[in-house]
Design goal:
By secondary structure, the chain is α+β, with helices and mostly antiparallel strands. It has a seven-stranded antiparallel sheet with strand order 3-2-4-1-10-9-11. The chain has a six-stranded antiparallel sheet with strand order 5-6-7-8-12-13, covered by helices on one side. A four-stranded parallel sheet has the order 17-20-21-22. The chain binds iron/sulfur cluster.
């Protein structure tokens, strides 16, 4: 789900990036069919998906032709009270968590997005990015559509209701076939159907679970674990799964030649207790670290994450190299979103309030830092300098993925090449800039191989590493596609 007005690459002055150099645009979706307290189950599901979005959250529920929804800014536990959940009546429900992007932090863009049409209601919750959103929206507006939000997700509902005259199934197929790019969506109707839709490339995850005969849709399997649902399967790329009183049934969009699951889900986005393509994320990240140790070994006293996103790869690196693993930097977990961002002269404090190195462990040592990725390089320099100031002798940085040289157009918030430090600096230049003794990245081959999926070249999107985009994202979209 993307804000179509968002066109503001983050800069080194962005206060949030002082604290965190990781991408921020992903969302989580969840759906429940058949449970008497569907909204409450949805609430717990969203808890498990909170890591995918912390800006806003919402739940819609449907009963006897009536749909109610509640959305707000903030974290799941801050938004919903038991009383509010009690008002979201019905055995069908969908929910959404949204990640923060600069300039789009408004309630109008929180999801699920609900429309009412001919006495029926439809809601959508979306993870991803339609790359042809501007063209589709312009074509719809030319034909009289009035949009209520700046979200690309709204486009799907416009396309869907326009095609309802063809029948429900055909309307879903027609609407989804017009979309290009990355989308995993859950849709709720006031007839209580819950629908899961995954784009033909399968960029974003979406899985099906069963909870004592009730059906669950979720971005990640970790949320199925929380509600004690059994994992059934991942939705196929291009699958539209309709769940109603007869159970689930599938329609299929035309598939492209290859799947393009976002490999960054394995590297960073997903929770380590989730599983995709039969591979657990925790174990996969450790394997990335093991391969990195084989590809870029160096003598050192200890291996540490920086501070904790690279922890699983660092464990793998340590195991493969025999160098002890330590937690050399401690994160303050209580620095919330209300933290007063530091002025330029107090930047140093801004970083230290969140992270503090353990002097007694690090002083006089040669250390290997393992990071899962370096996107803009905004935090690494300050952190390395803090280690030098402590008296660390040598600092070697190992990154558990290849250099990010190309922007993502499929819903992740590095959308311009200029903001990616690896596109501006060679490995040698970056090592000098960060004042490192050595810097090595995991090779693309090593990443694919250690992900452990058969024929990885034919299964993953890795465009931010190699620039080979599985779906066109420029304006050269055929006119046929825009005939709505
Ligand atoms: S370009 Fe990178 S971040 Fe974007 S979908 Fe592809 S692999 Fe994921």
């Amino acid at each position: 789900m993307t804000d179509m007005q968002y066109n503001c690459p983050l800069t080194d002055d962005d206060p949030e990036l002082l604290m965190n150099d990781h991408p921020r645009e992903a969302c989580g979706v969840f759906g429940v069919y058949g449970h008497a307290e569907a909204a409450k189950i949805c609430y717990f599901g969203l808890y498990a998906l909170q890591h995918r979005g912390q800006e806003s959250a919402g739940i819609a529920a449907s009963q006897n032709g009536i749909m109610n929804e509640h959305r707000d800014m903030g974290l799941v536990p801050d938004i919903f009270s038991m009383e509010q959940l009690g008002q979201l009546k019905g055995a069908s429900s969908i929910g959404h968590v949204r990640y923060s992007t600069t300039g789009s932090s408004v309630l109008a863009n929180a999801q699920p997005f609900v429309v009412r049409h001919h006495q029926k209601a439809y809601a959508v919750a979306h993870n991803g990015n339609f790359v042809n959103a501007h063209q589709l929206k312009a074509a719809l507006e030319d034909q009289g559509s009035i949009f209520q939000s700046t979200m690309d997700s709204e486009i799907f509902l416009h396309l869907f209701v326009r095609n309802l005259k063809l029948g429900f199934d055909k309307a879903l197929l027609e609407a989804a076939s017009k979309l290009q790019g990355a989308y995993s969506m859950v849709v709720l109707t006031s007839r209580n159907e819950v629908i899961g839709i995954r784009d033909p490339n399968g960029f974003r995850p979406l899985c099906l679970g069963n909870m004592n005969g009730n059906w669950i849709l979720s971005s990640e399997s970790c949320a199925l674990d929380l509600v004690q649902a059994e994992f059934v399967r991942e939705l196929e790329p291009g699958e539209i799964l309709i769940i109603d009183q007869n159970g689930p049934r599938s329609l299929f969009l035309d598939k492209p030649n290859r799947k393009s699951f976002c490999i960054f889900e394995f590297i960073y986005f997903a929770r380590p207790d989730s599983t995709f393509m039969g591979r657990n994320v925790y174990q996969t990240r450790k394997d990335h670290g093991r391969t990195l140790a084989r590809q870029a070994s160096v003598k050192a006293d200890l291996v540490m994450p920086f501070p904790d996103s690279g922890v699983y790869a660092a464990l793998g690196y340590s195991e493969a190299s025999g160098i002890p693993f330590e937690m050399g930097m401690i994160r303050n977990h209580y620095v919330g979103r209300t933290f007063i961002q530091p002025t330029q002269s107090m930047r140093e404090f801004g970083v230290r309030v969140k992270l503090n190195p353990i002097k007694e462990l690090l002083k006089g040592k040669d250390i290997i830092i393992v990071e899962d990725s370096i996107i803009r390089g905004t935090t690494a320099k300050t952190r390395v300098r803090a280690l030098r100031d402590l008296g660390v002798k040598k600092v070697h940085l190992r990154v558990a993925c290849p250099p990010h040289r190309f922007p993502c157009h499929y819903g992740i918030d590095f959308s311009t090449k200029g903001e990616l430090i690896a596109s501006r600096k060679s490995q040698k230049e970056l090592a000098e800039f960060l004042e490192l003794d050595s810097l090595h990245y995991l090779s693309l081959e090593g990443l694919l191989e250690s992900t452990g999926v058969d024929n990885p070249d034919a299964n993953f999107c890795k465009a931010c590493f190699d620039g080979c985009y599985p779906v066109e994202f420029d304006n050269s979209i055929s006119k046929d596609c825009l005939e709505i």
